[in-house]
Amino acid sequence: MPHIAHIAVQTPAHSAVGELLSYASEEVLPPGTLVRVPLGRRELLGVVWEPPAAPAPLPEGLELRSVACVLPGLAPLDAGWRRLVAFAAHYYQRSVGEIAVTALPPQLRDMTAEQLARRLAPPKPARKSRKSKAETETEPQACEPVRPQQPAAIPSIALSAEQASVFAQIEQSPGPFLLYGSTGSGKTEVYLRAVQAVLEANPQAQALVMVPEINLTPQLEERFTARFAPLYGAEAVVSMHSGMTNPQRLKSWLAGHTGRARIVLGTRMAIFASLPRLALIVVDEEHDASYKQQEGARYSARDLAVWRGRDAGAKVILGSATPSLESWHASSPTAQGGPGRYLRLAMPGRIGAAALPRVRLVDMTQQPRKAVFSPPLLEAITARVQRGEQSLVLLNRRGFAPVLFCADCGWKSDCPHCSAHQVFHKGDRTLRCHHCGFTQRVPFACPSCGNPDILPLGKGTEQLEEELERVLRNVQRPDGNPARVARIDADTTRAKGALQEQLAAMHAGDIDVLVGTQMVAKGHDFRRITLVAAVQPDSALYSSDYRAPERLFCLLMQAAGRAGRDAGYVAAQGSRAEMWIQTHDPANPVYAALQKHDYEAFAARQLQERQDAGMPPYAFQAIVRADARTQEAAQAFLNAATQAARDAQLPWLDEVFIYPPIPMAVQRVANVERAQMLLEATSRGALLRFLNHWQPWLHWLRGQGEHRTIVRWLVDVDPLSI
Ligand code: ADP
Ligand code: ZN
Ligand code: ZN
């Protein structure tokens, strides 16, 4: 008599999601066991799950297919990991199978059982004496963490008074903590100490440290490896991010799963790492939008970190110089005067008494028209080049110009497939759509009227680079060499290793002026930058997205944090750290707060506005989006979905406000029309429960008559932009 196993698998996107699939198995398979199962003509990776509360009776005469195999040599995924996956599926309205399988390393999906067995086989005794790299990769599965090889040495760096006080509180309270510390206040050092403390307290404990960007992981890995490899061995620190090869990812994942890795560093995907002894989670730059996945399951790794920490009994530290308004709110006293849900720990000072840069606003309405750079900014940059200091120029738009334009007939370089312009890239003379990727050669004359004089309108990073090269052509560095201008954006860093190379050149002082997008504004510990300039940040202030000012403020604070990080250097140079902002709206309160480095005033104002308007974090939102060949079809689906909820009188509907569908800001992408509908509730629980009831109806509706033409639909819970 075979047993029935309930398996979480990733079913094709079109079928209804949400259920586990049942298979026959000769033996009882404990939950968490990794298996392969047949589905249609394919064989898929699956995870044995707990039986559903009310198992559906098997249809008469249906024969269960059998589990194809159990993946050999792998301990089952533990209950904590399964709870995390189940929670994420429930919260973000996806299937358990989808979250579970996509959380596992891709190679587990693709390897045959034999390949995996070979990969995991205990090393042959004959080879055991050799300490080759291959051998350490194939160590057996037993949870045998590397023990400290020497008594943990106190690192030579003495904590500052602020760091010491914060660290003491982390030791004493359960958290979660919001570490609110200026850029350069030494937050990373606090993370290192907190990790060290949990590893010392428990010889098997594991820590997870997350950063928002792949390009920040090497820097972090260096610091953590330098600190912990001497104590716990080089194998104890592993990374997890999408820039790694599949074998590397599998290796890191196994190290975490088996307990060999004591510290996992990674981007948002690392939140789903199997870490049976998790004792600490750090989320650095917790405000960063990159923690929110924008494809498939739209989870927030930051929010899941808080949930996972509480569930696993692990401490959670969220760190930022400009916390998200959600976290700031959560760490503020409640309206009744009680303590917030998070414990706020502040580190206002910069290490080494480095001053935060002076913020200078340039009123562009008083500058020569059409000037890319105002004359005083150019002077300031030139003077720095001549003194051998570095400058960073930020513009969040790559390419040469966002659009080409014909002054005679009004033609614009619109993308034929999207409701967006094609961006002019001068380097390779192309017009490229940044939404669908459609690329064309730049036409010799206006395609509409033949006018040979088509003009670039607006500016992108390429243009800034060209302009700076022109202006600084005859400017010399102290060593007599000509000024060097470089650019870092998605276009210059496509080649593997290109970004690291360019960052290294910046650190080495080979670059005098770096032009870049927000990629370079975050996290990097550049030592010789004394000037940061944002040349055109205003557009964010007029965006319809209510989070745009928050994002702009964070980005500019972060960017400012790149200037003057080394007080000794700034003083020795006789220079001063400055942040320049070119704006047409110098009186805007966002800039006034920035000038005072006053995050708290900014946050208080924003939160007040949000409260008055009934916006998050005082309300909870979800978006339902539909894509279709026509805007009417997309909106019809959303309208029908609302009607279905009303007709069925779904529970909690009364507590959820459903707005009418509207076209998305970029309405058409790759010939697909996109519409969305906002849902709002004052209770998170009500919104969630309503969505859980509604979801099967959305699946059902999609299969009905006219709605079959819907290209896709999705739910985004806690969306970052609406
Ligand atoms: P943050 O993460 O807040 O931006 P970091 O931890 O990177 O700041 O610290 C900024 C700089 O100060 C780094 O170069 C770091 O090595 C140094 N630093 C941090 N803490 C100390 C300390 N207690 N004593 C001396 N230097 C420190
Ligand atoms: Zn024309
Ligand atoms: Zn396009």
The shape is globular
**N/C terminus separation:** 54 Å
Low-confidence stretches: 125-133, 135-152
CATH 4th-level superfamily of the largest domain: P-loop containing nucleotide triphosphate hydrolases
Radius of gyration: 27 Å
Question: Helix share of residues?
Answer: 25-40%
> In what range is the share of β-strand residues?
15-25%
Query: How many individual domains?
Result: 5
**Number of distinct beta strands:** 28
Placed side by side, the strands forming the largest sheet appear as: 8-9-7-10-11-6-12
CATH fold naming of the largest domain: Rossmann fold
- Judged by helices, strands and strand pairing, the structural class is alpha/beta
Count of helix runs: 21
Mean pLDDT: 90
Assembly state of the chains shown: single chain
Largest sheet: 7 strands, parallel
**Ligands present:** adenosine-5'-diphosphate, zinc ion
Highest CATH level, the class of the largest domain = Alpha Beta
CATH architecture of the largest domain: 3-Layer(aba) Sandwich
Can you give keywords for this protein?
binds adenosine-5'-diphosphate, Rossmann fold, seven-stranded parallel sheet, 722 residues, binds zinc ion, 32% helix, alpha/beta, single chain, 21 helices, six-stranded parallel sheet, GIY-YIG endonuclease
Could you describe the 3D structure shown?
With 722 residues, this protein is of the alpha/beta class. It has five domains: 3-119, GIY-YIG endonuclease; 161-351, Rossmann fold (3-Layer(aba) Sandwich); 354-398 and 460-612, P-loop containing nucleotide triphosphate hydrolases (Rossmann fold, 3-Layer(aba) Sandwich), CATH 3.40.50; 399-458, no CATH class; 620-717, ACT domain (Alpha-Beta Plaits, 2-Layer Sandwich), CATH 3.30.70.260. 32% of the residues lie in helices and 20% in strands. The strands form six sheets. The protein has a seven-stranded parallel β-sheet, with helices on both faces. Strands 13-23-22-14-21-20 form a six-stranded parallel β-sheet, with helices on both faces. A five-stranded antiparallel β-sheet has the order 2-1-4-3-5. Helix 1 (79-91) crosses helix 11 (301-312). It is globular, with a radius of gyration of 27 Å. It starts with a strand and ends in a 5-residue tail after the last strand. Mean pLDDT is 90; it is low at 125-133 and 135-152. Residues 157-160, 163, 181, 183-189, 351, 525 line the site of adenosine-5'-diphosphate.
